Amino acid sequence: MKDFDLKKPIEILERTPVVLKHILQDISVEWSHANEGSETWSAFDVIGHLIHGEKTDWIPRIEIILSESPDKNFIPFDRFAQSTENQNKTLSQLLDQFEKIRKINLEKLKSKNITQDDLNKKGIHPAFGEVSLRQLIATWAVHDLNHISQITRVMAFQYKKQVGPWIEYLRILK
Amino acid sequence: MKDFDLKKPIEILERTPVVLKHILQDISVEWSHANEGSETWSAFDVIGHLIHGEKTDWIPRIEIILSESPDKNFIPFDRFAQSTENQNKTLSQLLDQFEKIRKINLEKLKSKNITQDDLNKKGIHPAFGEVSLRQLIATWAVHDLNHISQITRVMAFQYKKQVGPWIEYLRILK
Questions:
Q1: B134 Cβ under 8 Å from any chain A Cβ
Q2: Chain B within 8 Å of A131 (Cβ-Cβ)?
Q3: ipTM of the prediction
């Protein structure tokens, strides 16, 4: 894509909660709660991570970039916070929570009436330094796709042995 | 998973058509029809491939394994057939077609009342030689996950430049 039309990432961001519900709602725990080995994430863990991002990452960083404050430093994001936060929740609760908070956040995003000039504004990422609002919003959408892909990969991993020789044709298992 | 319970792959197989509809239905062509470069597939192409598999691959191979015939050779699957078949169809038509044929095929699968003994029965794959019905059905489910993952990857690729330095954190873009 040559231009950056804000409607395009929003198309992805709007769909992800319902896509994840259709992949995971009411599925057996052997698919939703299994991971790829110690220190790796299950589908359940990924949903918790996505919720934490909605709370502490995307919108707060957009607001830092757009604010009048001269301090443009982002607060570092804790990529492991969900492991303690969601211990006692069900997958169904997390899927609902993600759907609700994403909807609220997209309403916030749209209410900002972001212009092409705004998209060039910058924030300071703790590792990368200067990044633009355009890059942040594009990353938000790709981050969704990344985690949908991760969930399908973690699920496929549960059948790594069961597929026998077909593993050779299945890129997701490599 | 230790045992092979036929209900488990069916959980995946039942969900895939509606998952793909929620990812792709009515999305901009910049997401659905773009690919990763020449000789690669768009999301649209992948749906065509999935339909072709429903018609010529999974159920026909299951039937070869379960049939009384002594000839257990599978017919080779044409992985590029969809490029000519679907030229004049819309994405929405393909998503509907996939949903219908998958539903019919899962009814066929369930009607066979496959037993644990049946799952050990063998067919002859053109490249791998002897494969079991268990492996074939597990592969059918993982093949779905593989292509959901591929579609998210091809979509993410369209924003490879737009994410700027965040590419470093996005496995889907590597």
A1: yes
A2: yes
A3: 0.96
